[in-house]
Design goal:
12 helices; globular; six-stranded mixed β-sheet; binds adenosine-5'-triphosphate; Rossmann fold; binds magnesium ion
Length: 272
């Protein structure tokens, strides 16, 4: 394969090759989304058989949904299960201020991807949606997108191309058409939140009086990444308190700390 391509002007690497070993079981998502992921993996493995029927495995997939729901994580899992390295591309970092530059950066990234078999993730694909309002940037971003779509249409090789966004409602129909499958990551329902608490609290001993159903209700509307953060905080509280045994108080304190953090983030502390 080719050397890692770099930004023509500033010299920073345009992508990163990453290796993971994460099992499918650590991803807790809707059964629809899980089935879609599993089919993509199975289709890749059966690509040769498909070819004899003139069929092609799904290889251009769009992940969308709220932050912290498992989009980037899913790319790491596909890479783990298929044992193919992940080529990680921060889409916003290759969008240079000069269009000519961006086109050449994109070309270099696609040349690299075509030089091997990879799971390629164009992460933070959102840039396409984010700059919609800014009319000056809009035209430029639109050209970048068209450029990207052209390269996506003509890509050669067996790599699986993933793109992740949390601004899916802003994407053009032209973009939707290009993807063989679209996976939607929902916020977790009660059952999934319960499973997340169980998964992330597995390492620590628990008080028999712990009320997980209550924690599940208190965390309505939160993402798996939020719940992960809460469980880590709760475990730390019990360790710092030298109990090493998780109590209901630790969980609720951690949830309250999290809500406070969200209030600060959303400018709801009441101080204008
Ligand atoms: N569905 C899930 N099941 C289990 N763990 C999850 C799930 N979603 C997220 N996590 C945990 O939260 C971390 C962050 O999630 P991830 O980076 O995949 O979010 P994302 O959907 O890519 O968000 P963003 O839109 O902000 O990029 C993961 O590395 C994983 O530890
Ligand atoms: Mg992500």
């Amino acid at each position: 394969t080719l050397p890692i391509p770099r930004d023509t002007e500033k010299g920073f690497p345009l992508l990163e090759i990453q290796h993971f070993d994460i099992s499918m079981d650590s991803l807790l998502i809707s059964s629809e989304a899980k089935q879609q992921l599993e089919q993509i993996i199975r289709e890749f493995k059966d690509a040769d058989i498909f070819a004899t029927y003139n069929l092609q495995n799904k290889r251009k997939i769009l992940f969308c949904g709220k932050p912290g729901t498992g989009k980037t994580f899913s790319a790491q899992i596909i890479s783990s299960v298929l044992q193919i390295p992940l080529v990680y591309i921060r889409f916003d970092s290759i969008i240079s201020s000069y269009l000519g530059e961006t086109a050449s950066n994109l070309r270099k990234v696609f040349d690299f991807v075509e030089s091997g078999t990879w799971i390629a993730l164009f992460d933070e694909f959102d840039i396409i949606g984010k700059n919609r309002d800014d009319s000056h940037e809009h035209g430029e971003i639109k050209r970048v997108v068209n450029n990207f779509l052209q390269m996506l249409d003509n890509i050669k090789g067996d790599s699986i191309i993933l793109a992740a966004t949390n601004h899916q409602y802003m994407l053009d129909p032209a973009i939707w058409r290009r993807f063989d499958d679209i996976i939607y990551y929902e916020l977790p329902d009660e059952n999934i939140r319960k499973a997340l608490f169980e998964l992330y609290l597995r390492p620590i001993k628990k008080d028999p009086g712990i009320d997980l159903p209550k924690a599940v209700i208190m965390t309505q509307g939160l993402s798996p990444a939020d719940i992960k953060m809460i469980t880590e905080e709760a475990m730390k509280l019990s360790i710092l308190d030298s109990r090493h045994c998780l109590g209901q108080g630790d969980i609720e304190k951690a949830i309250n700390k999290f809500s406070r953090r969200e209030k600060v983030k959303n400018n709801q502390m009441g101080d204008k």
